[in-house]
Design brief:
477 residues, alpha/beta, 5-stranded parallel β-sheet, 4-stranded mixed β-sheet, globular
Length: 477
């Protein structure tokens, strides 16, 4: 009993000490901020008085004074004796100017400064003008390094296949498709009805290398939306991941809603799927079976032209029937080139050392663009396990350097952090004070990661979520 009382007393003392340290740190931060602001105010007042007394100063001296003021505004706020990063308003203005320029002096019409003679930049590398060529560039940039990775199960490490292995397997699968009736031209549409996984990208790369067109279907589509896409694109060959989707498609065929001749599945077929396929007169094949057939009947690549259709990308159907957008290889390459060029001129530089986690639906064009960007620089792409509840575990194992996020995920992380401190008044107080301090700095234009609060509070979140991440991208859901 006495031991319990002593333990509780020590814990209370520790909590009191933590609160005291937090309050002192907050006061110190506020004092530093006030001191910086007072110094700036005094300097500006002195400058105003000096200008009043000596109106005859030459323009050269005024420019020199303005230069000194701008330098002093770029103040370094210190925490625990170490200088933190600062946000210089002048440099921000320069950064904004680099993003767009006024067209013909009209500030309401903006264009990329990368444009030459009012012509948009379609590509940066003459040898990378299609997605087939972008992947070949990735092979060289990576020095045949790791390309696609997946986790076989919870608790297991990522397993990787190299760029050349992806290229070889894509050639095998593409050759298998041709052997089974597909044709190597942009009139051939191949459906993909699957979650993100290695086989998804192998299928797409096979289409890219043999001039076929990818038509992805969202994992969450209902029967009406599926029927709409299947009939509008007249899809005869569809690659799926699970038996449930095989049965879904077969039911549509049997009911006369659309026609399919070949369904290729990544999962081992069950007896029910085989029976349904037989009654619907639809051929079923395993993904590996098609690869093996292609390996034994290898065909040379039939590369597309930049103007050839690459994909028909449909919306998710949340506002009515899905709407299809036709995108060429040139469209995708222009986007990838633009992002790369802007990154080189700012701070979003990417290289073959990058690691990207793919969990946003590949049926969405944003995720396709992100993966194409990784291929362009020869980087790695690791897939999540397919369960969004395990995403943070996947992130912890993969340690991505590039992470695309949506508001829904950010809100989930936010709620998780607050739920974690709800049972402790001390932790809750510390988090509140940390947020208050961080927001005050952001409003003043100061961006920093090594204050007292970063080390005491935010480090726990960063360590789990962004230990290696250098680029976080927020995209609409």
């Amino acid at each position: 009993m006495e031991q319990n009382i002593e333990t509780e007393t020590v814990q209370t003392q520790d909590e009191t000490t933590a609160i005291t340290q937090a309050e002192n740190a907050q006061t110190e931060t506020e004092d530093q901020t006030e001191q910086v602001e007072n110094e700036q105010k005094s300097e500006k007042d002195a400058e105003t008085q000096d200008n009043t007394e000596q109106p005859e100063k030459v323009q050269q001296e005024e420019n020199l004074q303005q230069e000194e003021i701008e330098q002093k505004e770029n103040v370094q706020v210190k925490s625990n004796g170490k200088s933190s990063l600062t946000y210089n308003p002048v440099s921000v203005e320069e950064l904004v100017k680099k993003q767009t320029v006024a067209v013909d002096g009209d500030e309401t019409v903006r264009a990329s400064p990368l444009m030459k003679e009012n012509q948009p930049v379609e590509f940066l590398d003459e040898n990378a003008r299609t997605l087939h060529e972008i992947f070949l560039r990735g092979v060289k940039q990576s020095n045949d390094g790791p390309c696609l990775g997946h986790r076989p199960g919870p608790g297991e490490p990522y397993k990787w296949i190299t760029y050349n292995e992806v290229l070889t397997r894509s050639q095998h699968f593409g050759s298998g498709l041709l052997h089974e009736g597909a044709v190597a031209n942009p009139d051939q549409f191949i459906g993909i009805f699957s979650q993100n996984r290695v086989e998804w990208k192998l299928t797409e790369q096979a289409c890219n290398s043999y001039s076929m067109v990818v038509v992805p279907l969202y994992d969450t589509l209902g029967p009406q939306s599926i029927q709409h896409i299947m009939t509008q694109c007249d899809l005869k060959i569809v690659v799926v991941d699970k038996n449930a989707k095989v049965k879904n498609l077969l039911a549509g065929v049997k009911d006369g809603k659309f026609a399919v001749t070949l369904i290729i599945t990544m999962e081992t077929l069950d007896d029910e799927a085989k029976s349904l396929a037989e009654s619907a007169n639809v051929r079923l094949m395993m993904f590996k079976e098609v690869e093996e057939i292609g390996k034994n009947n290898l065909k040379d690549f039939v590369p597309p032209k930049p103007s050839d259709l690459h994909t028909i990308c449909y919306t998710s159907g949340t506002t009515g029937l899905p709407k299809g957008v036709m995108l060429t290889h040139g469209n995708i390459v222009a986007n990838v080139s633009g992002v790369y060029a802007v990154g080189e001129k700012t701070f979003i530089t990417m290289s073959s050392a990058e690691v990207y986690i793919s969990y946003l639906p590949l049926a969405h064009v944003f995720e396709r663009l992100m993966v194409a960007q990784m291929f362009y620089v020869g980087a790695r792409v690791g897939f999540f396990q397919g369960d969004i509840k395990l995403l943070l575990e996947d992130v912890g194992v993969l340690q991505p350097t590039v992470f695309a996020m949506v508001p829904r995920l950010i809100n989930k992380i936010y709620d998780t952090v607050w739920a974690g401190v709800a049972s402790s008044s001390v932790k809750k107080f510390l988090l509140e004070q940390a947020l208050k301090s961080k927001m005050a700095k952001l409003k003043r234009g100061i961006v920093t990661k090594n204050t007292f609060w970063d080390k005491l509070v935010f480090k726990l979140v960063f360590t789990r979520l962004t230990k290696c991440t250098k680029i976080l991208i927020n995209t609409p859901s």
